[in-house]
Amino acid sequence: MADLAIVFHWPPSAMDELTVLDLMDWRERARVRNSAE
Predict the structure, then answer these.
(1) pTM for this predicted structure
(2) DSSP track, 12-26
(3) Burial profile 13-33: b = 16 or more Cβ within 10 angstroms, e = fewer
């Protein structure tokens, strides 16, 4: 969840209603977006 907060600037309340699968999907998006090319 910290990855999402840092990369997408989301507060914890924005992630409260996400399922574990949604969190995993968004975490991967954050990883891709933040990875060095």
Answers:
(1) 0.81
(2) HHHHTT--HHHHHHH
(3) eeeeeeeeeeeeebeeebeee
